[in-house]
Amino acid sequence: MQVILLERVAKLGQMGDVVNVKSGYARNFLLPQGKALTASTKNVQDFETRKAQLEAQNLETRKEAEAAGEKLAGQTFIVIRSASDGGALYGSVAPRDIADAAAADGVTFDRKQVELVAPIKELGVHDVIVRLHPEVDVTIYVNVARSAEEAALQASGKSIAQLAAEADAAAEFEIAELFDDIGSAASDDE
Fold first, then answer.
1. The sheet that has 18-20: what strands, in order across it?
2. pTM for this structure?
3. Most buried of the four, 1, 43, 102, 159, by CB within 10 Å?
4. Is residue 166 part of a domain?
5. What is the domain extent for residue 23?
6. Is residue 184 part of a domain?
7. Are 62 and 132 in contact, with CB atoms under 8 Å apart?
């Protein structure tokens, strides 16, 4: 099915392009969302008359998205989740969780704007892309931790693996010190 794009659509084209798409994609997504029109001769003529208006509207929304993106870029949002000692989450962090964490900090964007390459299933600081407009992408950071204290440690640059290694080293040192004390006490008794 041929459609005329009314805005830039990722992996399809720019506004005004006539593209071939599967009819189900057009009927179920592009047409109801107002992102495209069927490419009939009447619609092509209607589009040409509305093109300047659509371009102005697109430019305005893009400027708004760029302004919001400047405020949002580089921000870190904390998501608290339960996890194993090794840092593996019991579940995962979804786009909805990221949008909710941002909303708790006073920043609003739709969960559909969050792009995760893969689900977040480990503790740590993760890069996440937020697509505010088809032409405006912003990178934010999501700090996934078990507690606020752990999130602060991760924000300072320490990973869960480093913290676990330090705890293991401290425990081994205490055990070695304890055995040294026991050994010296036994030799004093003789």
1. 18-20, 2-5, 36-38
2. 0.71
3. 102
4. no
5. 2-64
6. no
7. no
Q: Are 130 and 81 in contact (CB under 8 A)?
A: no
Q: What is the pLDDT of residues 75-90, one digit of tens each?
A: 999 999 998 888 889 9
Exposed/middle/buried for residue 79 (C-beta within 10 Å: 0-12, 13-18, 19+):
buried
* 151, 111, 84, 153 alpha-carbon torsion, rounded to 10°: -10
Neighbours of 132 (CB within 10 A): 20
DSSP 3-state of 90: strand
Residue of 43, 67, 63 whose CA lies nearest to 55: 63
Work out the number of other CB atoms within 10 angstroms of the CB of residue 159: 15
Q: Are residues 80 and 151 in the same domain?
A: yes
Q: Which residues of the chain have pLDDT under 70?
A: 159-168, 181-190
